[in-house]
Amino acid sequence: MLRALFTSLSANRSLRAVAERSSVGRRLSSRFVAGTEPEDVLRAAQSVNQSGLSVSIDDLGENVTSVEEARASGELYHCLLDEIAARKLDANISLKLTHMGLDIDENLAREQVSSLVAKAAGMSPPSFVRVDMEGSAYTDRTLSLVRDLHRQPGNRGRVGAVIQSYLRRSEDDVAGLLSDGIRIRLCKGAYSEPRTIAFEKKSDVDANYLKLAKLLLKSDIYHGLATHDESLIRRLKRFAVQEKIRPGSFEFQMLYGVRRDLQQSLAREGWGMRVYIPFGNAWYPYLMRRLAERPANVLFIARNLLRK
Ligand code: FDA
Q1: Is 66 among the domain residues?
Q2: Ligand 1: does its nearest atom lie under 6 Å from the Cβ of 228?
Q3: Residue 294 included in any domain
Q4: 27 is known as an active-site residue
Q5: HSE on the CB side for 122, CA within 13 Å?
Q6: Which domain range does residue 91 map to?
Q7: Rounded distance, CA 109 to CA 146, Å?
């Protein structure tokens, strides 16, 4: 029930507007969000790198409704790539198509992501653009845009997609992306989806995750397994060892502020580990999705707030 409540709160525009402007709101989000300014996230990325982990930087924002806002978000990602190069960070970027203007004009989003992928591909060493996956209304358009961009000369391996194991269609989508050689981030999925298209039971979502992750591990393409689920991670490590899959040929991925102990122990064991670090003012929907995943985080955040 709490999960449904937080998922529906994540889409509430009025609450979002109030929360994101309040200083208490910003303090509440600080456990999962690295700050509001680019400098905040770059500093966080450097510190995560220093502890031996890779990073993906996410400028928070989604469903923007003005061309100016969409263009400003694209520009900010260009600056982030410049800073990643200048500071020699072990980092790439993650973005959402609705932050790049997909709800306004698909060509605007395409043009913006295309120029970011070209920039990432031209960097030395080359960087990478991960296109996050949003709700199912965007799945087809997101996958088709990633596949188109990946086909452009020079872009191979420089742009990747996200697959959600709660969607029944995901096995087919994985097959399509693998046939193009596209890097995939596999996650369980964070949106509210109807039972006609998504598995309802956690055990089915987890079983599909394991099945798809094994396909990815055997594919000879560098993928990201994004989960904090310790039992799944244990099974995937066992599978990788059994199948003689090198630890450096894929990476685990986790969110900033979640299971830092597990992030560190995986890295110490020699597995690739990337931390997804979000920043910016538009933190409200992101935080609500984190609370939906684990309502106990409400207590955790409240305790932190009282302690400050
Ligand atoms: P699950 O929810 O089953 O949790 C397993 C265990 O992990 C819990 O028991 C708890 O211990 C811990 N845990 C999980 N979430 C936690 C939290 N918020 N706080 C504290 N502990 C927590 N989704 C999406 O739809 N599109 C996307 O593009 C992405 N991108 C993405 C990138 C990365 C790097 C990650 C890690 C996740 C995403 N997600 C996502 C979110 C993803 O779909 C999913 O909602 C969360 O990762 C939670 O699922 P778990 O796999 O962690 O398992």
Answers
A1: yes
A2: yes
A3: no
A4: no
A5: 9
A6: 33-282
A7: 11
